[in-house]
Write a structure and sequence with these properties.
Radius of gyration: 17 Å
Helix content: 25-40%
CATH topology: Uracil-DNA Glycosylase, subunit E
Number of helices: 9
Mean pLDDT: 94
Low-confidence stretches: 1-13
Number of domains: 1
Number of strands: 6
Strand order of the largest sheet: 1-3-2-4-6-5
Shape: globular
CATH architecture: 3-Layer(aba) Sandwich
Length: 241
């Protein structure tokens, strides 16, 4: 196992109670042998541009404000992003696109997220993923998705002030609906379909759809900065209702 962060990582742990317990369990999780092998192999073998860095090499827990009213939900950590830095959406092109927008929306204290323990704080925002380990080819197996699902259920239950969930992509959208159902809010019928800008009320939560901030979307113009800004503005407005 390859671990980075040391004292800086420990200082970042501002959460307590159920969220702290979830974080401890997530970071030590070995439920999925394929993901354990992959995340640790990537952390050992590295890539040339990060060959001198120590990788986190473990599951990546959620990050943010325990009193958040907005939850931002992705897919899984990137092999050389979150799996390296120890923070979701950090250290890769997706994070480079996302955090400036979050900062401009007043949801982060800095437009740059470098790694776990760098002092960045999320404001009224919790950022997490349904799958906590970096999967090969960014494609977790259904069994891996299901093994990890209880963590997200417990996260959302512990985040009692959350009113808006922003799903980055179809995988996150489906995971959010399954999480709501596990917490006693059945999926509406007909089942809401993911699209950019989609919005649906499920119990006390509003689910908003946004294209994922992956390079595949941002480099091709499928997701532009104004499009992301619009979803974040909508999230803030609905969270304040």
């Amino acid at each position: 196992m390859v671990v980075a962060g040391g004292a800086a990582a420990a200082r970042e742990r501002a959460v307590s109670g159920p969220l702290a317990e979830i974080e401890r369990e997530v970071v030590g999780c070995v439920r999925c042998p394929r993901l354990v092998e992959w995340r640790e192999r990537v952390a050992r073998e590295k890539v040339a541009r990060f060959r001198n860095e120590a990788y986190w090499g473990r599951p990546v827990p959620g990050f943010g404000d325990p009193r958040a009213r907005i939850l931002l939900l992705g897919l899984a950590p990137a092999a050389h992003g979150g799996n390296r830095t120890g923070r979701v959406f950090t250290g890769d092109a997706s994070g480079d696109f996302l955090w400036p927008a979050l900062h401009a929306a007043g949801l982060a204290t800095s437009p740059e997220s470098v790694r776990r323990g760098d002092g960045l704080q999320a404001v009224d925002l919790w950022v997490t993923a349904p799958v906590k380990c970096a999967p090969p080819d960014n494609k977790p197996l259904p069994s891996e998705r299901d093994s990890c699902a209880p963590y997200l259920v417990r996260e959302l239950a512990a985040l009692q002030q959350v009113r808006v969930v922003v799903a980055l992509g179809g995988f996150a959208w489906e995971s959010a609906l399954r999480t709501f159902a596990a917490l006693g809010e059945p999926t509406p019928r007909p089942k809401p379909r993911f699209s950019h800008g989609a919005a649906v009320r499920v119990g006390r939560w509003t689910l908003l759809g946004c294209y994922h901030v992956s390079q595949q979307n941002t480099f091709t113009g499928r997701l532009t900065r104004p499009m992301l800004d619009g979803v974040l503005a909508e999230a803030r407005a609905r969270a304040e209702l």
